[in-house]
Structures are given as structure tokens and as C-alpha cells.
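C-alpha cells please, single chain.
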Amino acid sequence: MGSSVCVIGSSNTDMVIKADKLPAPGETVIGGTFLMNPGGKGANQAVAAARLATPLPGSGQQEATVITFVANVGNDVFGRQARQQFEREGIRGDFITTDADEPSGVALIGVDGGGENCIMVASGANARLNQSQVANALASIAEPSNTVVLLQLESPMPTVTYAIRACHEKGMRVVLNPAPAQVIDPAVLACLYAITPNETEAELLTGIRVTDETTARQAARSLHDAGVPNVVITLGSRGAYVSTDSGAETKLVTAPPVTAVDTTAAGDCFNGALAVALAEGQRLFEAVAFACKAASISVTRMGAQASLPHRHEVEALPLLSN
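Here you go.
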């Protein structure tokens, strides 16, 4: 039986300016480099998963994981380019809908000399992704028990909530990347297999400011108390804090040391990699280590989808001692 990852989320076109510094409110910064790239958290995660889905010879994994993307794009040049990109990446696009009324989503991204970024998003067609589209996609999945469903919060919250509940009822493992950060119904959290907030998102969800391993453990405990069995708090260059089975096992999984030039899609790369590794049957700690390696490669490159690594690049990195 083959494994699959179903990513439900957003597709944007990223318009990026890289400059020495990010502007303060009311300030104009002159002297930057402009790039235009495909992006959107859902699309980034789907592309990351697709590039990592084909196992290397001798790995023991017999088949490539099937990657399906559920999304809305506009009837415009950005939407057509996005569809072409998904096809090139080998992503199943049967459930990518072209909206007749709304434009494709766009994101304006500033990146400073240290690789930090700020982002503004115009959702466009992404804001019209609905429950019927999700239901049709989920009905097409032949092996629910071998499927990992990956969601973010750039889609309408009623659609996200419906998807989480429906997947849980069908026996699919649901990984929620709660970004951009917003409050989530605890009843929905209890339907997840895992949640993957960064420090900021973990603080919004729990009220606990995450600054180190101790506070990460406290935030994870709060999320366990809300019903989430597995918590993965991403900590940037430090790696990720993992707490499983309501805190029975905890560990800081470290990331390879690299020099970051652009962190724009690092979290998306992490989540796409995590979903593929889980779908292949890796244990959560092993899957997180794989995801940390993939994300560490992505931050050494400019752009969102342009920065996402392929399987052979991740496998070439040495194992870390965690």
C-alpha cells in the first residue's frame, strides 16, 4: 500500500525585495534586489513534500509518496503559472480550482541582510477555499490510514476546522502548522495528530513565551492539556522541541549549523518534509530530524519554492547527534 500526503492550503505569488534592513513604519528603504517567486504556505509545503517524496535507491522505501494539493487560484497569469509549476513538481492537481471571480493570492516580502523577513499577504482566491472542495479531495484518497494531511491557517478557518474534523473521522493523521498565528478551538486541537508552531505561534496558543527548552516544554504541556498528542515547536536555528504522547517522551532535535540568507520558506520546508517522513512510516523524532535537515538547507538559498531542497540533498547531510 502506497503512502500519501494531502496538503490543503494557499497558493500565492511572492514578490520579494532583499535589502540591508527592513523598513520601520513610515520609512522607505532604497537599494534592494527584486525577485518574483511562486509561494503561499500551502503551495510551499506541497512543493517541499513533492521534492522529498521520491526515496533514494536502497532506502527500503519502495514507492514514492503521492502528493495531492487542494487549493484555489485565480483565472490570471499567476494562477496559470502556479498550475504549471505544480505539474512540473509532480503534484496531483485534480483538486486545484480556478476561481472565476477572485485573483490569485499575492505576498509582498521584505528580507534583510541577516535573512529575517516581514510579509504582507492579499489572499484573493485563497479566501474562497470551501468545505465542498475539501470533501471531494478527501473522498478520493484510497488509503486513509496511510495518509498524512497537512494544513496551515492561510485558508478560511471554517474550511480548516472542517478538514481537521473530517480527516480525524476518516482515520487520517492531521498535522497542523498554525501559521499565521491565531486562536484555535480546543475541540479541533483534540482531532490533530501533531501541531507544529514556532515560538511566536506557541505563545499565542498557550500564553507561554517560548525562549528556551524549559519554556518550550511548558508550552508543549499546555498543548497536550488541550488534547494534542504530539507537539513539535520549531526553534529556528536551534532545531525543534518534540513532545510526544502527552509528554511521555521529549527531546530537542538540533538542526545542522548553516549561514542563513533567507528564512522565508523554512517553516514550510520543515512541515512538508515532516509530512513525507511520517507518511513513509518514520517515527516522529526521526521525521523531525529529517525535517530539520531539509529546513537548514532551505535557509541558505533565496526565495520560497526556489529554496526547497530535493531528497538527495537532505540525505547527503550527516546524521546529527540528538
